[in-house]
């Protein structure tokens, strides 16, 4: 059916909630430090598109005001990548501390390295995505569900209503030129779970009802991955992560150099510096231009369905989120290889 052609793209929609830089442009995910061709423009300079939050700068994690019960361990069957699960089964993600029930006449699957759990109606036109992350605060939950998502072909899925808050649940309507949807965000004490149902135009009420029913089935537990999360944090304390990129024309008529540096303190404070230098020469003469951006605040590591996430909150209350992966033994930040060494600014 035509709607399912959106399924692959839709699996990436909420990935930005855990793996894109919320207040900066998205990363191309390319590795390597040099290029001999391409444009001299650099799209990795942070852009403050997010408004300051009312929540004060702090290292507090989670949502202590949540009324969602949190058990010692999650109920259900541990979800396994690439396996289909049938309606009525309760599935759990122990590392993040939550479980849910597969709705009637539906199947659920989580693809290897996927950013979202996929739930599809058997014989229907609705697709539902589940995204989760540990340590979500209310401000971060709002930030997660308020981002526009590119579903391809220049079509953007955006909120079409104000975010409604009822206790520890946030909800809002979404739509693009091709599809409609509704998102529910449950904020537990230790974990946040976003559920987005999307369907064909005209199915707004059905999407709202479906996502709400699925959200009602969610149960929370103490995340079993807490030890791993703390180990990830310990590995960055007192360190500097550096991403360096250099691009130039084959004849070196122009060049672009980018330096990104993150300094992580053991007190969970950080400093970030960005510098992009562009230069060119030609018959009309030559020029060079620098673009600098930096920010500081608090940092922490959280767990998602696939990779650890680096969460930065600036002293002005803005939120930045980056994915952390290890490729061939090297740390990658948003898909870009980073060198890791001792910081000369943070201990």
How would you characterize this protein structure?
The chain has two domains: 2-21 and 61-224, Mog1/PsbP, alpha/beta/alpha sandwich (Protein Transport Mog1p, Chain A); 228-342, no CATH class. It is globular and about 65 Å long. Residues 1-57 have low confidence and may be disordered. With 347 residues, the protein is mainly beta. The N and C termini lie far apart (56 Å). The chain contains five helices and 25 strands. The longest helix has 13 residues, at 204-216.
Q: How do the strands and helices of this protein lay out in sequence?
A:
Blueprint: H1 7-10, H2 16-19, E1 34-35, E2 70-71, E3 77-78, E4 85-86, E5 90-93, E6 98-101, E7 106-109, E8 117-121, E9 127-134, H3 138-145, E10 149-150, E11 156-159, E12 164-166, E13 169-175, E14 180-187, E15 191-199, H4 204-216, E16 219-221, H5 226-234, E17 239-248, E18 254-264, E19 269-282, E20 285-303, E21 308-314, E22 319-327, E23 330-333, E24 336-337, E25 339-342
Parallel strand pairs: 1-17, 2-16, 3-5
Antiparallel strand pairs: 4-7, 5-6, 6-16, 7-8, 8-9, 9-15, 10-11, 11-13, 12-13, 13-14, 14-15, 17-18, 17-25, 18-19, 19-20, 20-21, 21-22, 22-23, 23-24
């Amino acid at each position: 059916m035509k709607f399912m052609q959106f399924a692959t793209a839709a699996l990436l929609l909420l990935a930005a909630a855990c793996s894109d830089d919320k207040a900066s442009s998205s990363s191309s995910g390319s590795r390597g430090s040099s290029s001999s061709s391409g444009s001299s423009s650099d799209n990795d300079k942070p852009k403050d598109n997010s408004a300051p939050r009312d929540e004060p700068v702090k290292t507090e994690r989670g949502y202590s005001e949540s009324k969602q019960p949190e058990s010692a361990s999650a109920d259900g069957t541990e979800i396994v990548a690439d396996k289909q699960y049938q309606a009525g089964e309760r599935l759990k993600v122990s590392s993040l501390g939550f479980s849910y029930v597969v709705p009637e006449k539906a199947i659920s699957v989580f693809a290897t390295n996927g950013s979202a759990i996929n739930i599809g109606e058997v014989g229907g036109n609705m697709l539902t995505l589940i995204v989760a992350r540990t340590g979500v605060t209310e401000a971060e939950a709002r930030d997660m569900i308020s981002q526009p998502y590119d579903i391809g072909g220049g079509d953007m899925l955006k909120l079409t209503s104000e975010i409604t808050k009822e206790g520890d649940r946030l909800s809002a309507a979404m739509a693009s030129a091709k599809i409609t949807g509704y998102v529910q965000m449950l904020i537990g004490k230790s974990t946040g779970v976003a559920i987005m149902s999307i369907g064909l135009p005209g199915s707004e009420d059905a999407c709202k009802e479906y996502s709400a029913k699925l959200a009602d089935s969610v149960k929370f537990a103490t995340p079993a991955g807490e030890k791993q999360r703390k180990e990830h944090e310990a590995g960055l304390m007192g360190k500097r992560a550096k991403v360096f990129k250099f691009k130039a024309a084959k004849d070196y008529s122009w060049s672009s150099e980018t330096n990104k540096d993150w300094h992580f303190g053991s007190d969970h404070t950080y400093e970030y510096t960005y510098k992009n230098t562009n230069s060119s020469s030609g018959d009309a003469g030559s020029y060079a231009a620098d673009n600098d951006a930096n920010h500081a605040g608090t940092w922490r590591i959280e767990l998602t369905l696939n990779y650890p996430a680096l969460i930065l909150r600036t002293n002005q209350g803005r939120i930045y989120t980056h994915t952390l992966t290890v490729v061939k033994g090297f740390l990658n930040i948003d898909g870009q290889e980073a060198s890791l060494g001792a910081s000369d600014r943070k201990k």
